[in-house]
Amino acid sequence: MEIARAVPVRDEHLTDEYIHHKVQEALQAAKRREQRENREGRESFFPVFVSGWNIAASLLIIAGLCFALLRIYNHTQPAATAGQPSRLTTPALKEVANTERPFKYVQLPDGSSVVLQRNSTLKYPRAFSSAKREVYLTGEAFFEVTKNPDQPFFVYAGELVAKVHGTSFSIRAIAEEKEITIAVKTGKVSVFTEQASPTLLLTRNQQATFERAQARLVRSALKSSALLNIPIENQEFTYSETPAAEVFDALGKAYGVNIAFDRNSLAHCSITATLGDEPLENKLKWLCTILEASYTINQDNITITGTPCD
């Protein structure tokens, strides 16, 4: 027990010097005890005992240090609620703020689309981890998330967290308001708070409202077809023999982007397609496949190039 007490088990910085010092201190204690027992006339028994004592001392020291390291590791791990994701700890987040426009288009690293309302901010990593995709919203935004069940998508908005199953939805999370609201246009969204409240599963035309004063999360049918009153919330993106120029003009207005194309080249082109709730880039891929054209994206400027339709 003397040697066990010589190795303090508390949360310290266990440097190599500290460990070496404690090992030497414990061995010195063992030697002093050996000398004391020699003086008491136990020479005939002690040679065998010394070897066993040194081994026991070393094992006790190693066990004590391992236990201390385990305690330090456990204390430094962030506490997370069972079944809930933790917020990003990496400081390498890109921030996009919309301070001037009625709404602003943001393309996420996975191709997902975000239409950010004025006076709103979105933070996200420059590259998502392989395990999950996490973004942070302050204000209002409409999302179209790229479907990937192996890499779940989380939106943190004030006290609420939305786990997205590949869908389109709106979030209103303004700091000074009494409520946070998430409204689903298509697909499914799981909504919960970071205080481990019950999870609500929202489907098409449903919304969840978090009442801050009561810390209560309530599900209901959509009170309005447009939570944020922006064009994209009401558009189905379904076209039947629609002139290509009209399609690109509609996309530009819906996402708040500038789509440049040669109107003369597309004058005789028409589109029949249902583009649905896919992110903008997926819509562009489908349209350009139909038109045998190509596109480039530079932030919120898009250029379409191709040959004239017959």
UniProtKB/TrEMBL annotation:
Keywords noted in UniProt: Membrane, Transmembrane, Transmembrane helix
Top-level taxonomic group: Bacteria
Domain Protein FecR C-terminal: 237-304
Domain (FecR protein) ranges: 106-189
Transmembrane segments: 45-70
Name the record gives this protein: Anti-sigma factor
Source species of the chain: Dyadobacter endophyticus
